[in-house]
C-alpha cells in the first residue's frame, strides 16, 4: 500500500526503551511479528533528551497501514525487562522531534560514556583507569572537570570503547576508590562537553588585586561542585 496523499506515511512512536537498546533490537522487536519497517534499520529513528542522553523513545517508519496495525499490537510487549508502549504517530511529528533531539548532530546513543561522583580528593586518571581495570577505555577517554576556580569537582567522565563495556562499568556502582564509595551514572559526550565548559581556564582568573570578573563570584555556578550533580 502506498503512503497517504498527505505524505504523513505510516509511523509509530515507541516509549519506555531501556537505555542500552539498539536499532537492531527495535527492528527485531517488530519484524518478529511480520511487521515490515520501511528501509529496515534506516526506518528506526531513536531520539535524544536535551542533555544528549537516550530519551527512551523512538519513531518507526512502516511500509503499510497493515504493518502499522500489526506494530500497534506490540503495545506493552517487552524489550529486555521493560514494557514498551506503542502509539500511532505521523511523519511531520517524527521529523520535528528527531530534528530537535540532535540525533543528526551526534550519535550520543553509542558513545559509551559514564559519569563518576564521589571521587577522593586528588584522584588521578591513573587511579580511575585502575578502578575500571579490564574494561577498555578509549584514548584520552577520562575527563576530570574542574569548577570555576580550577578545583576538582569530585566527578569524572569516562568513555569506554563500546556501549556494552559501559554497561559493565555501571556494575561497579558503589565500589570504592580509596575509602570513598563511587557512584556511577549513565552519561554522554554532550554532558562531558557541558561540564568542561563550566570550568574556567586559569588564565581567565584575576591576579592579585585585579578587579573580579563575572566568573569570580562564589555563586556564579550555584556553589561550585554541586553544579555538576544530577540530584
From TrEMBL:
Task: Tell me the ranges covered by the RRM domain, including all copies.
Answer: 10-91, 112-189
MF annotations from Gene Ontology: RNA binding
Compositional bias ranges of the Gly residues kind: 221-231
Compartments, record wording: Nucleus
Q: Where is this region: Disordered?
A: 203-231
Q: Which CDD domains match?
A: RRM1_hnRNPH_GRSF1_like
Could you tell me which SMART domains the record lists for this protein?
RRM
The name this protein goes by in its record: Splicing factor hnRNP-F
User: Which organism does this record belong to?
Assistant: Amblyomma variegatum
